[in-house]
Amino acid sequence: MSDGRSFKISLIAAVADDRAIGRDNDLIWKLRDDLALFKRVTVEHAVVMGRKSFEAIGKPLPKRRNIVVTRRDDYSIEGAEVVSSLDEVYALFADSDEEVFILGGGEIYRQTLSDADYLYISHVHSEFPDADTHFPEVDWNEWEVSEEESFPQNERNEFAFTFKKYSRKG
Ligand SMILES: NC(=O)c1ccc[n+]([C@@H]2O[C@H](COP(=O)([O-])OP(=O)(O)OC[C@H]3O[C@@H](n4cnc5c(N)ncnc54)[C@H](OP(=O)(O)O)[C@@H]3O)[C@@H](O)[C@H]2O)c1
Q1: What's the DSSP call for residue 26?
Q2: Cα 49 to middle of ligand 1, angstroms
Q3: In-domain check, residue 164
Q4: Which residues are bridge partners to 157 per DSSP?
Q5: Residue whose CA is closest, atom 35 of ligand 1?
């Protein structure tokens, strides 16, 4: 929740019906329309990710301020800022009115959900029993949908999904 701060915290994730988000430090699906949407929403913004998600992506995302969270003190990345806590992330934006995007993964979503102002969720309409990483449980009563768009399964998207932007109820 905002707690009087001026910057906004947004979690962005693709989440299956059983809350699966990943397996073997990778995504479980190929959803080209979701990747396009992810780019459109996050470009020119700051993006925050856990060290494991950064390694899954493999390089800083272009045209975004990349911030990677790790407890390792010997970690550095060309083209990204490395910080050692989420408080350190929040301190970077303390005096700004930026919208900061949390890209995951599971560990980072779990620690930031209660601070989030917005959720950008692509609900993937399938279940993945062999997933090893999950989005935290969300009390959807606390959220209202402000945008929604459905995407069918087709040659671009392995699974049908529905994108919804949620705002925390006032
Ligand atoms: N479906 C989606 O939208 C989506 C999005 C993103 C990721 N994913 C998937 O999620 C999986 C990765 O998620 P994950 O939960 O395993 O890892 P993660 O959240 O990406 O990264 C975890 C790492 O972040 C660092 N960390 C976590 N909390 C910290 C804190 N409070 N302070 C400092 N550092 C902290 C630690 O790094 P150190 O070990 O270096 O200390 C920790 O090992 C992958 O399968 C990925 O593909 C899916």
Answers
A1: B
A2: 7
A3: yes
A4: 31
A5: 70
Q: Is any ligand 1 atom within 6 A of the Cβ of residue 165?
A: no
Task: Locate 129 and state its tokens.
Answer: 């029993």
Residue 1 within a domain: no
CA distance linking residue 77 with residue 47, whole number of Å: 15
CATH code, 21: 3.40.430.10
How many structural domains are present in the chain? 1
Spatial distance between the Cα atoms of 143 and 147, rounded to a whole number of angstroms: 12
Q: Residue 3: inside a domain, yes or no? A: no
User: For residue 2, is it within any domain?
Assistant: no
> Model pTM?
0.97
- 170 residues of the chain, pLDDT tens digit each: 567 799 999 999 999 999 999 999 999 999 999 999 999 999 999 999 999 999 999 999 999 999 999 999 999 999 999 999 999 999 999 989 999 999 999 999 999 999 999 999 999 999 999 999 999 999 999 999 999 999 999 999 999 999 999 999 98
Range of the domain at 39: 8-168
